[in-house]
Specification:
335 residues, alpha+beta, 5-stranded mixed beta sheet, 3 helices, 32% strand
Length: 335
């Protein structure tokens, strides 16, 4: 897979946006350079079926044609709303789930780029989805990205055939020549039944646990984020206070990690990131491995992307209203 380079004209200057490819590094826009311990602010958001304005046949039915209610104008409005949220949070790294195409990273880049500060631009990005899939995961970063790889599952030992499952996306972010491994997840949804689909999320949890365990052995700082479609209460909590780790990821090679959904007293933070059937759920996560700390964790719910009752303003194709059925979550990652 070769590198992709595109030029965007920004009124008085040229900026290059670089998409990272497997086992290749990208460099052009300089990231911020801070001495000492590295910290970056990361925003994670499930964008809720963020399809572009063209039709290629892989779209969900409500986005499959103009007759179905979707069009380029509505896409442009969604782009503006997305940029509104990202600009208000101002992260160093923006991680997305349910993005349709790599080309959309360029669209988002154009909406976010600054004419006045190159260090504020998201000059690096990567994207991946399964072949033939409708949606995937994307990353925009102010720091160089390199070494993208994916871990897909091929399970044939269950009675039922493996459904379509998005792989674990791994990519390094380079800050002051001290890389951090980002592990980006979008686990199997509970559609078709929570109990029936649980086995597939268990496999995905095992993959993440194995990855964290190996990172600990190899002393690689790693942090995971994404939409796990599993509430924090469905993970095994490690008892006790003032522990470095508060959650254990299960699998053949378990791993202990830290989740910021619990405060220092072990209590759950309010509200959740997803509201379903009248209940808050905490299914959008950050997890930190050994040598990494998470702080200033927030459910980003202060803006037009929240309804009057405090719930996420779900996007409705028919009317072109709303943002997403998930709230974004953010935190500062330090290593």
């Amino acid at each position: 897979m070769k590198k992709s380079f595109f030029n965007f004209f920004l009124s008085v200057m040229w900026t290059v946006f670089c998409l990272c490819s497997c086992n290749q590094s990208c460099s052009l826009v300089e990231g911020k350079k801070n001495a000492g311990v590295n910290s970056v602010k990361v925003l994670n958001w499930n964008l809720q079926t963020f399809f572009d304005g063209s039709f290629n046949g892989n779209e969900y039915s409500e986005f499959s044609s103009g007759a179905a209610g979707w069009n380029k104008e509505k896409y442009d409005v969604r782009l503006e709303r997305l940029s509104e949220v990202v600009k208000s949070v101002d992260p160093d790294i923006f991680v997305m789930q349910e993005l349709e195409s790599e080309d959309q990273l360029y669209d988002i880049f154009n909406r976010l780029c600054s004419n006045f500060s190159l260090s504020k631009n998201y000059g690096y990005g990567c994207f991946f989805k399964e072949e033939g899939g409708a949606i995937g995961c994307g990353v925009l970063s102010r720091y160089p990205l390199f070494g993208k790889s994916v871990h897909s599952l091929d399970i044939r030992s269950e009675e039922e055939s493996q459904p379509s499952m998005r792989p674990l996306l791994k990519v390094f972010v380079n800050v002051n020549d001290r890389p951090l491994l980002l592990l980006i997840n979008h686990w199997k949804s509970k559609s078709g039944g929570e109990e029936k689909s649980e086995v597939w999320r268990n496999y995905q949890e095992a993959v993440l646990a194995e990855t964290f365990a190996r990172c600990t052995e190899d002393k690689i700082p790693a942090a995971a984020c994404g939409d796990f479609n599993r509430d924090i209460l469905e993970f095994r909590k490690i008892a006790g206070r003032k522990l470095q780790f508060n959650v254990e990821l299960n699998g053949e090679n378990p791993a202990q990690v830290y989740s910021p959904w619990y405060d220092s007293g072990g209590n759950l933070l309010e509200p959740g990131s997803y509201f379903y059937n009248g209940n808050w759920e905490r299914i959008d996560h950050f997890f930190a491995g050994s040598g990494v700390s998470l702080c200033d964790f927030k459910v980003e719910n202060k803006g037009g992307w929240a309804n009057a009752d405090g719930t996420p303003a779900k996007y409705i194709v028919k009317y072109g209203t709303g943002y997403s059925d998930h709230f974004p979550v953010s935190c500062v990652v330090t290593w």
